[in-house]
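Same chain as my last thread, 148 residues:
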Amino acid sequence: MEIREVLKNLREKNHLTQDQMAERVMVTRQAVSRWETGETQPNTDTLKLLSKEFDVSINTLLGSPRQLVCQCCGMPLPEDSMLSREPDGSFNEDYCMWCYTDGKFTYDSRDGLLDFLLSHMPNPDNTPEGERRVQFDGYLSQLKHWKK
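reply #2:
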């Protein structure tokens, strides 16, 4: 879905006129109209306001151009409800809500996360724990949070 469609759907879903949406994000009605026709797009600051005002991620506002993945545990993040939040309530699109909440990480170390993964992830092939640890560690080491 294109950004113009996302914005129009968001406005209509919230039963707002273009004037009302404009007022909520401090722009003109004409700006909202131009967004919805695809003539222009909201700037970064306005995208942040829209995200906060309507409780959707910037990725969603942009038509979900990126497949988000938690940069701590590697879990895909296909829905905004899975994204972490900062203390001010804004989305943090880098992490899932289970690894990072209110400005704090759940796992103090990669070993702590590895222990959790080993005890909670299915092991249908009965792969030995040491081998699984190496596999998980190799994947985690590629994620932003654990890169050195």
